[in-house]
Amino acid sequence: MAGIPGIRRVFRFPWRTRRSLESDFEEELRFHLDMRAEELATRRGLTPAEAQGEALRQFGDVEDARSYIYAMDEQVEITSTRRARMDGLRQDLIHACRGLRRSPGFTAVVILSLALGIGTATAVFTMVDAFLLRPLPIAHPEGLVGFGDPTAGGRTDVGPPSTSLFSFPLYTELREQSRLVPDLAAAGYSGRFAVVVSREEGAPASQASGAGAEEWKGRLVSGNYFRVLGVRAAAGRLITPDDDRGAGGAPVAVISHAYWERRFESDPSIVGRTLLVNRTPVTIIGVAAPDFIGEVAGHGTGIWMPLSLEPVLLPNQDWLRRWDTSWLLLLGRPEGGAAAAGAELTSLARRAVEAATNASPEDVSRLTVDAYPIPRGFDGVPREGRMLLVVLLALAGLLLVVVCANVANLLLARASARRAELGVRLALGASRWRVMRSLLVETLVLGTVAGGLALFVLYGATEILVRRMGLGAASGVDLARDPRVLAFAATLSFLTAGVLGLLPAAKATRVDVGFAMRSHAGGLHGDPLLGGRRRLGLGRWLVVGQIAVSLVLLTGAGLFYRAANNLGATDIGVARDELLVVRVDAHETGFEGVQLRSLYSRLAERLSALPGVRSASYSRDGLFSGIETTTTVEVPGFEPSSATEEQANADAVGPDYFRTVGARLLRGRGLEARDNELAPPVAVINESMARYYFGAGDATGHRVRVNGVDHEIVGVVADIRGTSLRGDAGRRYYTPVAQGGEAESIVFVVRTEGDPGALAAAARREILETEPILRVRNALPLSTNVRESILPEIIVASVAGAAGFLALGLAALGLFGVMTYAIVRRTSEFGLRIALGARPEDVTRMVLRETMGLFLLGCAIGLPLAMAIARLLRQQLVGVGLVDLPSLAIAVAVLGASASLAGYRPARRAAGIDPQVALSRE
Amino acid sequence: MLVLQTLVWGPMHGYAIASWIRERTEGDLELEDAPLYKALHRLERQRYVSAEWGLSENNRRARYYQLTAEGRKQLRAEALTWRRYAAAVARVLEPVEGSA
């Protein structure tokens, strides 16, 4: 161990033990004492024993020095090992970057495909998280119990008192009488409010024109709402029971954090400012905690106001007094569990309804209050949306699988190509862990860069999801600042990189050193990593897997595409390509009753006089506007066995409506101008309703009773789909607007001669010229609205298509890579074959046959999988058979074509091998 | 500082440093050796010196200390402060001429 200074560092063990540290110092000490004793002996002539004693005395307190120095040395040791390790890591890092730069094609493909896979998966996860997983940002979400129908969040029911949503009087009764729910809160109405933000304070009245109004989703809440939820205020204060006292209570509002940020740039002086909400000045008293967007998951709320403001904000509705309008969801923190509270509220509700209304005993006995814990808030996503998210998640997952398989394959090939190098390193004494670490570091570098890029993909993908699906504003999803999403992306990158890196690293370092170092160990042997001729190596299995998953994705894309097409082609009972739909809001006019009606008929006349317009009419709910009215009807002679049998959708329409929209009148007549407020009440019912209540008989001449008024049925019209292409058209009846069906918002339908979109601007101008105070919300061809209604299907189809083609591309790339690599490894084999008389065509055929073998194996696995998945998605796939042959055939054909393309070049290369060159390499 | 100064001319082992200091102070300071070793190991932890095993003049294994770049910088800084301090003290002690 004696020798040159510094040599010790090279060969020393990575960690010096405590014992070796101690013996180090003991040696140093002995050297010192010996030297000193020697000196003393020569200078002062002491005997060796005396000199030793004197040296020790001169040294001082040995024990103290010893313990002090041990402590010091230990620290030195710790920092230096840490440094050595960091140095090694840094070297690996530099080495990895250098290596990656040397093969830019490999690096680019790996990083890009990883980024795509991770980004897409994260984007979809974000959506799923926002809608299905995220708990409410409140104190003790687990104790919160909701009452009512979870999916009824945005609805208003008119009809007999219900308990899926609650009327205000019923809520008041329940709140006062419940003993198990000490503090029962309510929230309702999720329509939009017209909000005017005045620039200067104190001058809101001048802005009453409606110009500059924005629409924000608002919700009316009880005074104890925030208290029950346990939401904090980010600024100012929240609504309290004092704000919610008496009709027309305090004109105050709380805004959401997102609204505050987006609209007011987080202005700290926001508290105390006045907004005009539906023309009523309302003072902002506070901002809710960040992330709190309301009690219904996925329904973003911008502004909360007390329930008592309802009469002011929504005049003429009288919701605070009506038992027949159910619009509130209830929530509380009951003592003793949800079930007991539900039972108590059920009995209270039955008693209250019985006492206050003339509901039949059967109606009363049907009332049941459902109660269930809502730690994530009420469930705001309808079933189709939920299914859509799950399907998207599955698609993203599959894409990630393909990406991983591809990257693993590339890494494997790379590790394999570097086996000689790794063999040398192992032979020189590098530990297996050391070599694996350098490979791992390389994949981690790739993973990190890909993770960074994935963020861009993530933002792009969410942009699409949010914009095109209209989910973003509603969900309040804020990607940029959501640490959960970023954490998910980061975890995903490191996990994929780690797993992907570990596998090839473990395999590649488990090599026989001698074998690896023999220059080109090929010959007629196979490659242990990528598989030989007979055996399928890991790499080939990966390619087979990729082909299988691509097939599933492509087939799925075909199925979704066809389903969306079928759905889009559904007959909706009107001339959908010739209709322009214009939604107009007459709220600002302040008109009522007759005034409104005459305004509407005047507007219809002006619109039908426009050049290029055949006729124009209007209806209250419009077509594919997302608005639906459901009422209870009584049909003399029909005995309902449940409340749902009495329900029918309703719309109020203007004169000439059916002819304008192009509906087919099956019997009787349509609604005309003569059916006004002076004439007897009439109704036109649709075919489904006629069949339901009157069977095969003629419905005209019969009566339906709505809200106590008898309407004579004057006509039967073929079903018109008014809201959805899915499911049944449903029972529906139409009454004249002129007989009391007017509302402050109306939808004009304009039948045009040519492209309806071309007339949108003219129609808008005409309306504003007639009455400038009107607000035209939108003017769109009906076909656009219809298309929007099946956007989920269209999006799934396009996402599946994109994922399918991406997967296809990656699979082809993988196949190409594996085959090319196999050819290189087997150069001598092919050389030998050619030397022995094989013709180039034979070699080409042989390689192509191998490629096709992989492809067919992939198909054999993928086809049953694709069929199984199609079976699972049966409900989503309207009008598509279980085994959709065209989709399957196209998918297989496309895959096959790209497989042969991917195999062709390697095959040509194999055929072009010069036997002399190939064999002389051995 | 004294210890660092001894290492300016090259690596030395602990005993040599101790003897050197004794010679320079000519026994004015009755020094024990323990504090020196404690200081050396402390300086090592502070990374002002590094230590290696080497062979002494009489062919024994000895621990050699060497000034690191950081140590050199530290020495320069400390020497400067020390000189300034000494100069200041000297000025105070000098009799002042022309004072009232």
Would you write up a description of this structure?
The complex is a heterodimer of chains A (922) and B (100). In chain A, 51% of the residues lie in helices and 14% in strands. By secondary structure, chain A is of the alpha+beta class. Chain B is 54% helix and 16% strand. The interface between A and B is medium-sized, with 29 and 26 residues.
Blueprint of the fold:
The complex is a heterodimer of chains A (922) and B (100).
Chain A: H1 7-11, H2 18-44, H3 48-59, H4 62-102, H5 104-133, E1 145-147, E2 157-158, H6 168-177, E3 185-188, E4 192-197, E5 214-221, H7 225-229, E6 233-236, E7 252-255, H8 257-264, E8 274-277, E9 280-288, E10 303-306, H9 310-313, E11 325-326, E12 328-332, H10 338-356, H11 361-366, E13 371-373, H12 383-417, H13 419-427, H14 432-469, H15 472-475, H16 483-509, H17 513-517, H18 538-568, E14 579-585, H19 593-608, E15 613-619, E16 629-634, E17 647-653, H20 657-661, E18 665-668, E19 682-686, H21 687-694, E20 703-706, E21 709-717, E22 732-736, E23 745-752, H22 760-770, E24 775-781, H23 782-789, H24 791-825, H25 827-835, H26 840-872, H27 885-911, H28 915-920
Helix pairs in contact in A: 2-3, 2-4, 4-14, 5-12, 5-14, 5-16, 6-10, 12-16, 12-18, 12-24, 14-16, 18-24, 18-26, 18-27, 19-22, 24-27, 26-27
Chain B: H1 2-6, E1 12-13, H2 14-25, H3 34-45, E2 49-55, E3 61-67, H4 69-93
Antiparallel strand pairs in B: 1-3, 2-3
Characteristics of this structure?
heterodimer, A: 922 residues, alpha+beta, six-stranded mixed β-barrel, 28 helices, globular, B: alpha+beta
